Amino acid sequence: MVFICCDVAVFYEDMALNEIFKNLILGSLILLVMLSVFHNLAPAPQVSTLDYSGFINDVQQERVASVVIDGLKIEGKRVDGSAFETVRPSVLDPHLIDDLLSNNVKVEGREPAQPGLLQQLFFAVLPVLLIIGVFMFFMRQMQGGMGGKGGPMSFGKSKARLLSEDQIKTTFADVAGVDEAKEDVSELVEYLRDPARFQKLGGKIPRGVLMSGPPGTGKTLLAKAIAGEAKVPFFSISGSDFVEMFVGVGASRVRDMFDQAKKQAPCIIFIDEIDAVGRHRGGGHGGGHDEREQTLNQLLVEMDGFEGSEGVIVIAATNRPDVLDRALLRPGRFDRQVYVGLPDIRGREQILKVHMRKVPLDEAVNASVIARGTPGFSGADLANLVNEAALFAARNNRRLVTMEEFEKARDKIMMGAERKSMVMSEKEKIMTAYHEAGHAIIGFLMPEHDPVHKVTIIPRGRALGLTQYLPEDDKYSHSRRYLLGRISSAYGGRIAEELTGGLDAVSTGASSDIEHATSMARNMVTKWGLSEKLGPLLYGEDEGQYPGTARQNYSSDTSRIIDEETRRIIDECYSTAVRILTENRDILEAMKDVLMEYETIDNDQVKDLMARVKVRPPRDWHVNDVPPQDVPPPSAAPTNSTPPNNVTPIGGPAA
To answer: What backbone torsions phi and psi does residue 546 show, to the nearest 5 degrees?
Structure first.
C-alpha cells in the first residue's frame, strides 16, 4: 500500500487558494452568460431584408432617401421612412455610388469598429496569462498537486500515511492472546500520555521498538492499539515504500517522514516489513551506493539523531529479525524487541471471543472447545475461522452460527475445501481408503501420539484423501520419539497400498509424505543433533543474504555419513510401520470398508475399529443400520530402538 502524507497547514492553504480561483472563474462565467442573455433578449428595431436587385430598382425609382455602407452590408431608409438592409455581391460595382448620387440618395460610410483600451489590453495579456496558467498547472501536478497526490517531482516525499488520533479506533481491548507483548509496550502508552512523568526523573523512553514473530500474530494491530490508547498521530508505511530505482530517493523519503513526525510529536511511526530495507549491509552486491543501503544509512542517522523527549517513537514489524543489520538493533535505535508469538489455548480463546462479538452465536457455541481444536492457529487464522463459520451459516440460511459451522470452517482451513464434484473411480477410491487407513492405524498405535481427529476419502484441496491428527495440548518442543513416530506414520499410506495390492499397485499419492519424512529425518541428523553417530553438531548450510549464496560447512565424507544416517532412520521407521500394519491387517481391511461406507470418520469410529467393536455411525450420518466390525485386538506398538510417537495431519494421495 502506498500512502501519501501532506502537511496540514499547506493543505488548507492550497484549498483556500483553489476555492478563490474557482469562485473567480465561476463568477466570470455567470457574468458572461447574463450579458449574452440580456443582449439576446434586448428588442431590436424592425428592419426588412431586401435583395440587391430590389435595392437597385428602388434607388432608380427614387424611393430610397439615405444609405449607410458598411463593407458589403448596406443599411438604408426609404422615402416613406421604412428601414431596410441588403448585402451587395462581393463583385465590384463601380456604378453604385454614381447611381446613388444621381438619384438624390444620401450616402454615408461607417468606420470599422475599433476595440477599446480594456479590450486591447485583455487580448494582449490573455496569451501570457494562459501560458503562465498552464505552466503553474503542470508544476503543481508535478509537485504533487492539492493533497499531495504525487507526481514526478514528489518521489522524494514520504509515502507514509498519517492517521490522526480521531481516526484510530483500535485499542488494547481489540488485541487478545498477546498479554506479554501488551505488557512490554504498555509503558509506551504511559509515556505518550504523560512524557513529563518520565523526563523529570531522567528516564528516557525507548526510541524504537521492534516487534517480531510469525505472520498473522497481530504485530500491526498491536502498533495501532498503542496509538489508539495514547491518542497520538500514527504514521504508517511499508519498508518497500522507501526503495526506488533512483539512488537517494529512499533516504530523502526517510528524512521527509521524520520531519513530518517531529511536527506532529508526540506521535508513532510504524514501519511494516522493515526487513525490506533493514537487511544487514556488506552482502557484496551493490556496494555502498546501493539504494537500499543508502536508505538504511539515513534511517540509522534519523533514529539516532533525535532525542526521546521529542515524543517520536518508531515501531517496526518483521517476520525475519535475523536478517536485520546489527546497527539497527543496537541500544539507542531499536533498543527494545517484543516477540509476538502464536497464541496458546487461553490466548486463542480470548482472540475468538474478540472476533465473535459481531457474529450472532448459538448458545451451544463454546470458544474454549474451538480453541482446543485449533492448535497452531494465529490471530489471523482465528479471524478467518470465525468469518468462514459465518459464511457457512449464511449459505444455509441460518439466523445463528452454530458449532457445526465452526467445525466445517476448521476442517476447510486445516484440510482444504471439499471437492464433491470430483468423480473418482471405485478402484481409486478403494486405494485411497487403504492409504488413509494406513496413516490412521500407525498414528493411533504410536506412543505419545496426538489423537486421530478425522479420516476422510473425500477429495480436499490438492489431496484425494486426508488423515488429520489433533494434539491435546500445545507443544513447543518435540522429542526424538515424537519425530520417529511422525516419520513412521508418514509412510503408513504407502505401506498400506503395498500390502494390499503389491509393489506394482503403489501410487504416486505418497510423494508429499515421502518428502515430509525425508526432510524431518535429515533435520534430525544435521540440525537437531539426534543422530548417535554424528552427535550434537550442526551440519546445516549457512544461509546467504541472497538466493544461491548458501555455503556448505562440512566435508564430502561428512556429507556421505549424513546420507547414511538419514537412510538408516528412514529404514528403521519404515520397518516399524510395516510390522504394525502387518500385525493389524484385519483392522486395515475393516477401516477401508468403513471409509467406503461413510467416506468420513472421526475419532469415535477410529477407536471402535481399533477396539474391534461395532462401529458407531458418524454424528452427521443418517443411516443407523451399520454392520459391526469384528476383528481381533490390536498389537501394541514396538518399543525397540525405533521408538515411535505422535503425528500432525498427514496428507493423502496427491490429486
So the answer is: -120, 155
